[in-house]
Write a structure and sequence with these properties.
This protein has 200 residues and is mainly β. The protein is built from two helices and eleven strands. Helices cover 7% and strands 34% of the residues. A four-stranded antiparallel β-sheet has the order 1-2-3-4, with no helix packed on it. A hairpin with a 5-residue loop joins strand 5 and strand 6.
């Protein structure tokens, strides 16, 4: 009915306008060199897509105001590529895509998700001889996920949040994780930094 309704019921408003339906988008980033748009579709078990995918959009004439675009699946999650449930994205200045994933606590290391291990950080070059290959850079603590990857201005360090370590623990006395202090400590969310090798 009005702008307030649009802000509260955004999905319904988009459907009324004929916007393109998405499969549980979790993050969206613009490639710094090509202008293409990458979207993390984290997966939808109810629709037969447990592993999710990365979608790539190219707007007509690379114009963000264009009403037309082309789309393609950039990468499908699954055992063959070693990742599932893409979550947060960021690009470095060279056009490398950094991705975290988020396999939910009830599925992590269970059934069809067991092969993936803990939630992780991945590097996906989009140019050069390794374009389209996926590299696992870091594995998260037990029952946690990495979120919010962000590069320092000089591109030398990547900052990551470690979210809800020990999620699903039955008691404070015996948590599933002791991140970050170990020993008999209580698990706590944290921010970590990873030094980026010069060859990346």
């Amino acid at each position: 009915k009005d702008q307030t309704d649009v802000l509260i019921h955004t999905r319904k408003a988009a459907a009324l306008l004929g916007a393109t339906p998405m499969n549980r988008p979790d993050d969206i980033e613009k490639h710094p060199l090509t202008g293409e748009i990458f979207i993390a579709l984290t997966g939808n078990v109810q629709r037969g897509d447990p592993y999710g995918s990365l979608l790539k959009l190219k707007e007509k004439n690379n114009d963000p105001l264009s009403l037309e675009f082309e789309s393609e699946s950039f990468m499908m999650g699954g055992p063959s590529l070693g990742f599932a449930c893409p979550d947060n994205l960021c690009f470095d200045a060279k056009g490398n895509l950094w991705m975290t994933n988020d396999i939910g606590g009830k599925n992590l290391n269970q059934r069809e998700f067991e092969i993936f291990g803990n939630n992780s950080l991945f590097l996906i070059p989009t140019q050069g001889s390794n374009a389209g290959k996926i590299f696992k850079v870091a594995s998260g603590p037990v029952s946690a996920e990495f979120t919010g990857p962000c590069l320092s201005p000089d591109g030398q360090r990547l900052f990551l949040s470690v979210q809800h370590p020990g999620e699903g623990s039955k008691s404070l006395e015996n948590p599933l994780s002791r991140w970050p202090d170990g020993g008999s400590s209580t698990p706590r969310p944290s921010v970590v930094q990873i030094k980026i090798p010069s060859f990346v």
